[in-house]
Amino acid sequence: MTDDLTSLTIQEASRLLRLGSISSADLVTAHVERIERVDPQVKAYLRLTQQLWEKQADDADRKIRRGDAEPLAGIPIAIKDVLCVRGVETTAGSQILRGFKPPYTGTAVARLFEAGAVMLGVTNCDEFAMGSSTENSGYFPTHNPWDLDRVPGGSSGGSAAAVAAGEAIIALGTDTGGSIRQPAALCGVVGMKPTYGRVSRYGLIAFASSLDQIGPFARSVDDAALTLSLMAGYDPLDSTSSDRAAMEVLNNYGAGVKGMRLGVPREYYDVQGIEAGVKAAIDAALFILQKQGAEIVDVSLPHTDYGLAAYYIIAPAECSSNLARFDGVRYGLSEVDAPNITEEYSRTRRKGFGTEVRRRVMLGTYALSSGYYDAYYLKAQKVRTLIKRDFDAAFEKCDAIVSATSPTVAFPIGSKTQDPLSMYLCDVLTLGGNLAGLPGISVPCGTSNGLPVGLQVLGPQWGENVVFRVARAYEEASEMKAEVATPVPSPHRGEG
């Protein structure tokens, strides 16, 4: 029965809760037992929040009995370690923030708590969300539940692995260049990145402020859509948040794809390094969508080749500015045994920041420095504008864009850590959506060599409902949701 409860969707779990077949405490206990059993291998969580889940589960059960339960009442959720939760240690996967307990809860998280969600714990991630494999965590790498010798993707690898391994029903991650969609693809779950501004960033420990967005991981498109609708909407605490109605993300999203035009960008389809098995899975997905009545059309995103370079100037530039606040004086790690304040800053940051964070801070500082700003940062912003125009032109010819989410399936742990460029190329199909501020989703679309492949759907700005519509139609027609609901982690893939 325990494992049955850890493979449920929100809809399935909510039905059992409202019928009285199970309690929220039962559901939480089943997930905690699952975590105790499999997380020593998967390592999705950094820390658990027992006091919080006990209180929230008790509150949920009381409201369910009264008949006034919220949409997520009693649903276990995991939170990425870059989202502040009051009184819960939040470190952005970094040693420099070890021991920091925020005095407030981020808006997106708070809205899910208000909707009844029960927090199980904080999930592992690449340090300050900088990475594509969760190997850059300041604590330990997370393992892919499908094959423990492989990465779960990143930077939100802990959240993706938690949902894939049955350690949470839903989870929150952040996506700066693909950090929700790419791990969702590698772990065989649904991962949604909303339009920039759809979800408040208040309470998010920033990496690159013009790119970061918060979004959900789930086992079904319906679950992702519901979760997004509950945390979206205007927030006076975030001046970049939109005042558009949160519920519009659900408009007509169950209407199917008949009559829709789905664009396939040649630059994404033939991207360098895409694996044959991945391309075969995408071909099969396109065939299914076509059978459902969609028209597949060719579109072009001609500046795709410049996206990676532009992203790795803009994102590090913003990170070098955002991370300047971590000096060891007000919170977190502090190397006070220093002869002066300048040396204290230097020692604290050298000890507290990992290799990848230091690399990006230096890249960003260089790009913003006197004499190089125009040559690098300003030029990268111009390329960003061209990429946005490419998408605008493409959406004049199609309703949504479909492609692979990642050019490869999950790769072995350690295989790319000595080659940063190879690691950066993992996001080549996702980062364009961030540069343009567009909504995108990854849904499971089969396997290659026994490992999950993700289908990416990108929509026009504020077109989350279009993205969900395509993803849901594919999910229903392919029945992929049931096949990849909860991969079982084990010491060797194929056992257990």
3D architecture notes:
The protein starts with a helix and ends in a 13-residue tail after the last helix. The radius of gyration is 21 Å and the shape is globular. With about 500 residues, the protein is α/β, with parallel strands linked by helices. α11 (about 305-320) packs across α13 (about 355-370) and α11 (about 305-320) packs across α14. The chain has a single domain, classed as Amidase signature (AS) domain (Amidase signature (AS) enzymes), CATH 3.90.1300. It is built from 18 helices and eleven strands. An eleven-stranded mixed β-sheet has the order 1-3-2-4-6-5-10-11-9-7-8, sandwiched between helices. The chain has helices spanning about 1-5, 10-20, 25-40, 50-65, 105-115, 155-165, 180-185, 220-230, 265-270, 275-290, 305-320, 340-350, 355-370, 375-395, 420-425, 430-435, 465-480, 480-485; strands at about 45-50, 75-80, 120-125, 170-175, 190-195, 215-220, 260-265, 295-300, 400-405, 440-450, 450-460. α5 (about 105-115) links the parallel β2 and β3 (about 120-125).
β-strand number: 11
Termini, distance in Å?
16 Å
CATH superfamily placement: Amidase signature (AS) domain
Largest sheet: 11 strands, mixed
User: Helicity range of the residues?
Assistant: 40-55%
Radius of gyration: 21 Å
Question: How large a portion of the residues is in β-strands, by DSSP E?
Answer: 5-15%
Let me know the average pLDDT: 94
Structure summarized in a few sentences:
40% of the residues lie in helices and 13% in strands. It has helices spanning 2-5, 10-19, 24-42, 50-66, 107-114, 157-164, 181-187, 221-231, 266-269, 276-291, 304-322, 341-352, 355-368, 373-394, 420-424, 431-435, 464-478, 480-483, and strands spanning 45-48, 76-80, 118-123, 170-175, 190-193, 213-218, 261-265, 295-299, 400-404, 440-448, 451-458.
